[in-house]
Structure formats: C-alpha cells, structure tokens
C-alpha cells in the first residue's frame, strides 16, 4: 500500500489565531500560559485535520512560535552572548522572542538576530549566529513535549527536524562566512552531531519509528567538503534507533546522486513539482530497502493538480517500489493558505481552480486511490469535479487578452536604456537640491487600528468614497507635516490607503484575484495574503497618481512615488503556472511603466520601485541564474527607462545576500538603492564596496522589525562604517524597510534620532 504522509502544515490557523495570540503576548495582553494553551489548541486541530484526511503520521516539530529554524537554534542552545543567556541552561520562550525581535515581555532588550529568506521562498528565518568555539547542548524540551502531546491524543507521529548540514549551512558568525559553504563551519559538525544523536535517541525512547530530517541544502551547488560531510554525518546518524527520512525540496538532488547513494538512511523525499527530471535517477539510486517519498502535489502554489497525469507518471514507480513508495506534497504546506472552503468572495469558476492545504491533502489521498485502484463512488465524484475545473481553466477566455498579447510581441522595440548615471545624477542633484547624507524613509508609515478600520468600513460600504478620500488625505497630510517638522529631505505619503505592497496593486490590475482568508506566514507574526495571478495583467487606470500628487501639493520638498516592482509582484503572488514566469513578469513591467510615466507627468520627481524579491527569485542552481537575472533585470528596466534624466529612480531590497548578484543589481541602473544593513552591522555593504557599485546607496540604519529605538550614536557609527566602504557623497540615510508594522511613538522617536544622525554626519564627514 502506498503511504500517504505530510511534510508540514500551516501553523498560523485559518484566521491567523497564532499571530493574534503571539502579538497579544508581546503586548502583555495575554499570559504565557494562555499563549501556550492556544499553541496546543492549534496543534491539536491541525493534527486532527491531517489524521482525518488519511495522513499516516502527523508531522510534529513543524509548529513554531516565530520560525522553525529559530526553534531549532534555541533547541541546540545557540544563543548569542548579547542576550545574556547562561550557557548550559534551558532557553525560555522570551529569550527566543528577544533573538527574533530584540525584546520580549521578560528580559533585557538587545539587537535582534539577522533575518533572511528561506531559500527561494517568501518565508523568512532568523539566521543562527555561531562562535568559533560554539558549544551545543539540548536546551529545550518542546519537541519531546509535542511528541508526547500528539501521542496522548492518539496520533501516530513523525517528528520533523532541520538537518544538521542545512542548519549549519544557513548559519553565520564572525569567524565564518555566511551561506558560502565555509568549510571552517564543518569543524563544529562533530559537536553538533552529538546533540542530534541525543535527540534521536530521546525520540526513539518515546516510541518514534520515523524522523523526517529536512536537508534542502542538498539541492544546492555544494563544495566537495560539504558533500563529504553529508556522508560523514549520516553514517553516524543512521546508527540511531529511529528510521531517517531525508527530505529535500525546491530543486533536484540528481547532481549529487553519488552522495545520495552513499547515505545509509531509511528513505528519501524529493520534489518532482519543481524538479520532475530527477525522479528516474533517484529511483535507480535507491537501496533495496530504502523508501522514496515523492513530492507530487505543489506545496508552494494554489492550483489544482492533474491527478490523472500524476497517476500515469507514478504507476511505473509504484510497480518498481511497491510499499516503498510514499506520496506527499512537494514541501511543507507552510507556504499555502489553510482552506479554500473559507473563501466566500471568489466566483465559483475561479474558486474551482484552487487548492489550499486542506484540499492538497485530499488531492494526495485521491492520487493514492488512483494508484491503488481503490477509487470509491464519492472519490469518483470529486475526480469528475477536479477534471472539470482543469478543463475550465485551460479554456477560459478570462485568462488571455488578445490586445496585450499583440503588445507583447513588440516588447523588444521598447527602449530599456537611460543616460549614463554619471551624467544624469548631476542633473538630479541640481534639480532636487538635497543636502549631503539626504534622509528618506522606505515608504510606509505606521498603519494604526483606525486606518485599518477605515479601509474595512469603506470596503464594506459603511463609509462613502468622499469620506474615505477625505480621511486618507488627512492621514497623508499628517505624515507629510511630521516629516517636514523633523527634517526629512525626501518625503513619502505614508501609504495609508494600502493594505499590502503587492495586494494593493493587484486589486487595481486586471488578471488578479484576492482571497478573504488566504493567509500565509512571511515571518514571525507577519502574515500576508498573496494575490492570485490567474490571467493576463493589464492596468485599466492609474493606481497611485492621485494620492502621490495630493501629497506633493502639500509641500515644496520632493515626495517619492511608491511602487512595487514587477519581480516582487511576481514572487509575492501565487502565479499562474500555464505560461513561463518571464511572460507574466513582462506583463507586470508594462503596467508599471505606464504608472511611472503618469507619476512623472503629475510632477513626481522621485519614484521608488521596490524590488526586495529579486534575490529570492534567484534559481537555486547557479547554472540557471543567468537566464533568470537577464529577464528580471530587463523587466525592472522596462518599468523605469521611460523617464527623464531629472527624475530620480529609487529601488529597495531587504534581507538579501548581494555578493553573488552585484553585476545584476548594478545592471538595474537605479539612481538610488536602499538596503537592509542594521541587523548585519553593515556587512552587506562589503559586496557593494568590492564591486565598486557606481550609483547612490542608502544602507539602512534603523531595524524596523524590532520595537527597539536606535540611538543617534548607533546610527552614526553604522554610517561611519559605510563611509569607509563607499564615497560619502553617494550615501543616503534611511531605515531598513517600511514602517507599516511599527507604532507611531517609536517611529517618531527613531526618525528623530535618524535625522539627528544625518545632521551630525554632515558636520563631521
């Protein structure tokens, strides 16, 4: 019998219950005991749901209070010294939260740990920080407690833990390189494996049969020393009393097939959605007793699967492997919303095309029924609906626009070039008349409860258009006057009208659809509702011009027009899978080009097109980088290249590693780029220094993901480091990211410090 299992389930709850509970705890509106009870309730509900769907073992360990890597880091006792945690003692929940966000209800505030993207997804994790003589020990009992919790509720369990090599690869430290495969980190592997063995033995003592060990780093281009480390590590771990399922996803492991053959593990999981070509190679490499878990249903997108085609594809594998074939999603279902049945606002045709976590489990059950020949009458009814939905989507007129298709055929005729930066920057400086170390923010200002309620009331028809416009204009004026008062040089309008930096634009573009409850976790308590790109993208009318023009009318200082770039809109949406992503991105770029030109015509002198997702969209295999970067950069330039020399184009990128894509970033040719550098202590600037990046740059000096208020001295010291790496005349002073999630009091205090820091720099540098 083919085994049905799952790699992980969304932890946030259908209505973001975990987010609300965690934030209430941070605000000291909920006790830690009540928070723990809510976590237990959610885990129980999710285990029950998976059990009822037919999952053999419920995954345990996929739950996290902030992110799963931070959970594991603290389980291993890896806590940076600044958090004043006694080595050898248990790590409490408040220490975990202080590592994530700089503060918690208990414990002294400290600089939060660095945060970055989880491979090529929009999920973030807290980067583990290592010391040269790093010690490891079992510092938390939460995994074992949750295993016992599930067992006591009557569930069979499969614990899920990050693999030692993936965790080590993702770590950083002053003595080590970050993400570059520094072999020095491998010196820590023996000590790390000692704790892993202890954990596996503890799980075995609890009666656990299988442990899922996630090793997505194995899909990357790994140096020989790291491949050898896999062999060394799993020779030891395989001696444990539990069976190990090594889970890989997001790409193929076929290029490391010799290493795969060496590892004496009980089973492998592979992702055939992202890398179907690896299936035959991995089947051939399996040992006689090893199981193969095939990730057949897309764990990262929301379209229904063609179960008939999958069944035909896997019949041969089933004939070869028999009961050694397991079926699962391609990766954890963390990356998709919980349940499409909660969506009452979507039209029935579009809704029939979609599959969220609950539906994906049902698809997996039906796929196994097809493979086993056990399709019931009820299953047959579901399969008929599935086939009908696939046919409806394939032939729907709503997915293609002939006029846009004709325009795309001539897209190569549109110029992507501007006057060289060295010439146009002089025009811009004269035109804008800015001081040295000009100050700005990234775009959004705090979105208060009142602003969010106003938007809800307007959408529900409880506030008239005129009243809504008046209220938003009042908030814009408040933001403008505050920036003028404290001395910001290039202003923003604050984005009070925007619910999300992608969703807002998608609502105004054709080809997008939106959910009511399609929440996914981005980081910590931050949840987003990715738009769904189901058809050709067009801009029926200007999207931001009226708000930006109103803001500019209030002041003589320049106000930035704020747009989200084409690649980020692509990456942060659920994208149609019936055409290449490049084509969808080009459609987005054409729509944004029209918006940019309309902003310029309305008198907006500075336009920011945010592209924080350029790096995360990078393919995981280096051989595929060039093709992606070529069309990604081209789409950015397609959006921006129509403006005059005097119009200054900004872009923003956050929580990314830039060293290996500097040429592409420079090729984007933005006049000013703003980046995150406060958490990394300006480390990211080294890439720009080494590359001799030619354009202006704003290294963020204010970590907006922490409630801590940075002091002037701290910001000055960061900018002094920046001025040692890059010419001072090309430096801007700004926060790391938008201020939407912060409160007004801390924002006001932090920006006052930032402006004071810029004034100090003007006097002393």
TrEMBL record:
Q: What class of enzyme is it?
A: transferase
Q: Name one Pfam family in it.
A: Meth_synt_2
Among its keywords, does the record have Lipid biosynthesis?
no
Q: Where is the Cobalamin-independent methionine synthase MetE N-terminal domain?
A: 5-320
UniProt KW keywords: Amino-acid biosynthesis, Metal-binding, Methionine biosynthesis, Methyltransferase, Repeat, Transferase, Zinc
Query: Which residues carry out catalysis?
Result: 705 (proton donor)
* E.C. code: 2.1.1.14
Residues in domain Cobalamin-independent methionine synthase MetE C-terminal/archaeal? 437-759
Pathway linked to the protein: Amino-acid biosynthesis; L-methionine biosynthesis via de novo pathway; L-methionine from L-homocysteine (MetE route): step 1/1
Q: Which family does it belong to?
A: Belongs to the vitamin-B12 independent methionine synthase family.
The job of this chain, per UniProt, is described as: Catalyzes the transfer of a methyl group from 5-methyltetrahydrofolate to homocysteine resulting in methionine formation.
Protein name, as recorded: 5-methyltetrahydropteroyltriglutamate--homocysteine methyltransferase
The species is: Paenalcaligenes hermetiae
């Amino acid at each position: 019998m083919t085994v049905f299992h799952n790699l992980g389930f969304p932890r946030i709850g259908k209505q973001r219950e975990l987010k609300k509970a965690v934030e209430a705890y941070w605000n000291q509106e909920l006790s830690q005991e009540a928070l723990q009870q809510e976590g237990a309730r959610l885990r129980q509900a999710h285990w029950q749901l998976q059990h009822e769907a037919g999952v053999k073992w419920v995954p345990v360990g996929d739950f996290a209070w902030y992110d799963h890597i931070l959970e594991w880091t603290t389980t291993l006792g890896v806590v940076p010294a600044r958090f004043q945690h006694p080595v050898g003692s248990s790590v409490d929940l408040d220490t975990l939260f202080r590592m994530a966000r700089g503060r918690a209800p208990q414990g002294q505030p400290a600089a939060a740990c660095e945060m970055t993207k989880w491979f090529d997804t929009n999920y973030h994790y807290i980067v583990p920080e290592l010391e040269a003589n790093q010690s490891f020990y079992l510092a938390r009992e939460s995994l074992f407690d949750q295993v016992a919790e599930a067992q006591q509720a009557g569930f069979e369990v499969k614990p899920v833990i990050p693999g030692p090599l993936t965790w080590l690869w993702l770590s950083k430290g002053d003595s080590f390189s970050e993400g570059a495969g520094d072999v020095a980190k491998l010196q820590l592997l023996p000590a790390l494996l000692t704790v892993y063995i202890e954990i596996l033995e503890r799980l075995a003592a609890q009666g656990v049969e299988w442990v899922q060990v996630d090793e997505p780093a194995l899909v990357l281009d790994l140096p020989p020393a790291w491949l050898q480390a896999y062999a060394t590590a799993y020779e030891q771990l395989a001696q444990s009393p539990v069976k190990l399922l090594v889970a890989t996803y997001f790409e193929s492991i076929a290029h490391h097939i010799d290493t795969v053959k060496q590892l004496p593990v009980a089973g492998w999981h592979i992702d055939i959605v992202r890398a179907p070509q690896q299936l035959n190679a991995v089947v051939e490499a399996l040992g006689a007793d090893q199981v193969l878990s095939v990730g057949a249903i897309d764990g990262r997108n929301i379209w229904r699967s063609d179960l008939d085609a999958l069944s035909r594809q896997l019949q041969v594998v089933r004939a070869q492997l028999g009961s050694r074939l397991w079926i699962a999603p391609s990766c954890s279902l963390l990356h998709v919303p919980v349940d499409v049945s909660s969506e009452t606002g979507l039209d029935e045709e579009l809704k029939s095309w979609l599959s969220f976590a609950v539906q994906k489990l049902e698809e997996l059950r039906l796929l196994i029924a097809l493979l086993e020949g056990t399709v019931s009458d009820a299953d047959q009814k579901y399969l008929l609906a599935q086939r009908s939905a696939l046919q409806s989507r394939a032939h729907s007129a709503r997915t293609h626009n002939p006029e846009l298709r004709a325009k795309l055929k001539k897209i190569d005729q549109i110029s992507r070039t501007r006057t060289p930066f060295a010439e146009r920057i002089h025009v811009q400086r004269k035109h804008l008349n800015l001081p040295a170390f000009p100050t700005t923010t990234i775009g959004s200002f705090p979105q208060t409860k009142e602003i969010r309620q106003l938007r809800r009331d307007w959408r529900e028809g409880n506030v008239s258009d005129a009243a809504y416009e008046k209220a938003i204009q009042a908030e814009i004026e408040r933001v403008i006057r505050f920036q003028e008062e404290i001395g910001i040089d290039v202003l923003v309008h604050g984005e009070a009208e925007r619910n999300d930096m992608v969703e807002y634009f998608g609502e105004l573009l054709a080809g997008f659809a939106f959910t009511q409850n399609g929440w996914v976790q981005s980081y910590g308590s931050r949840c987003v509702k990715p738009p769904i790109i189901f058809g050709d993208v067009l801009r029926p009318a200007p999207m931001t011009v009226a708000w930006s023009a109103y803001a500019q009318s209030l002041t003589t200082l320049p106000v930035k027009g704020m747009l989200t770039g084409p690649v980020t809109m692509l990456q942060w949406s659920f994208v149609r899978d019936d055409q290449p992503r490049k084509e969808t991105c080009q459609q987005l770029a054409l729509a944004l080009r029209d918006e940019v030109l309309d902003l310029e015509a309305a008198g907006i002198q500075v336009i920011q097109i945010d592209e924080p997702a350029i790096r995360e969209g990078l393919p995981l295999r280096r051989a595929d980088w060039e093709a992606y970067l070529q069309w990604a950069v081209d789409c950015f330039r397609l959006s921006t290249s129509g403006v005059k020399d005097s119009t200054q184009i900004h872009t923003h990128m956050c929580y990314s590693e830039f060293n290996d894509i500097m040429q592409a970033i420079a090729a984007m040719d933005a006049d000013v780029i703003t980046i995150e550098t406060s958490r990394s202590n300006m480390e990211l600037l080294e890439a720009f220094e080494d590359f001799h990046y030619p354009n202006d740059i704003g290294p963020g000096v204010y970590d907006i993901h922490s409630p801590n208020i940075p002091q002037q001295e701290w910001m000055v010291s960061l900018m002094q480091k920046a001025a040692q790496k890059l010419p001072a005349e090309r430096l801007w002073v700004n926060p790391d990211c938008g201020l939407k999630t912060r409160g007004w009091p801390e924002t006001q205090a932090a920006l006052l410090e930032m402006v004071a820091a810029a004034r100090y720099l003007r006097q002393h540098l």
